[in-house]
Amino acid sequence: MDSLIKMSEKNDFKIIEDAAHAFGSTYKGRKIGSFGHATCFSFDPIKVITCGEGGAVVLKDNVIAEEIRRKRILGKNKDTWHRYNNERSWFYEVTTTGYRYHMSNINAAIGLVQLSKLDQFIARRREICQQYDNVFKGLASIHPLKINYDDVSPFMYIVRIPGKQIEFMSFLEEKGIGTGVHYIANHVHSLFKKYTTKEMPRTEKLWQEIVTLPLHCGLSDNDVQIVIKNVLAFERIAS
């Protein structure tokens, strides 16, 4: 990030951060979202906090912020709230091309309550990740990623399991434990295959090793122990 900021200052370009998974995380003591010219966060159902659906853009430039506000609501210069708090409340003007990207009041209300619980959500997610790490580190077949959770707001918990991804996921599914793969490599998808011009052996290998284990604030200590117990059961079979 430091080198990007220096390049931006030297060459006069804007930094737009994709921080969809990083809400609440820090870098060198500063919150993610305070570095670039614009930062995008996601609040969909599986993120650290959720609005049910939607997200937010954080900006330093008020002019650009106002432009985004107009674009999110079909290019109108006034949203409903402002129209009904001023004279000529019925009148609005379309001043730019726009989209129907605005969040509903219901989704926003959910998000505000979630935001008030952010610290406890992050603490619980970190606690679960540490429990997983403490048990899984040193296993022969299953390898957790090396992450310093002091700075990270954990979005998901991923392990690598070379050569046994499908068997591992199927084993846990039989035990009633959901897993996932985050993410399938882009070049595998039919939309992007035609753009693949060369082999990508590292990417090909990695996406077929990773498995996402359950991680959310609704997991009880007993739930976490059930996951751990069954991961260790697979380890005994696989080793």
UniProtKB/TrEMBL annotation:
* MF GO annotations: pyridoxal phosphate binding; transaminase activity
Q: Which GO terms describe its biological process?
A: polysaccharide biosynthetic process
- An example of a Pfam family matching this protein is DegT_DnrJ_EryC1
InterPro entries, alphabetically? DegT/StrS_aminotransferase (IPR000653), PyrdxlP-dep_Trfase (IPR015424), PyrdxlP-dep_Trfase_major (IPR015421)
Write out the coiled-coil annotation as residue ranges: none
The record, for SUPFAM superfamilies, names: PLP-dependent transferases
Designated name of the protein? DegT/DnrJ/EryC1/StrS aminotransferase family protein
Q: Please give the organism.
A: marine metagenome
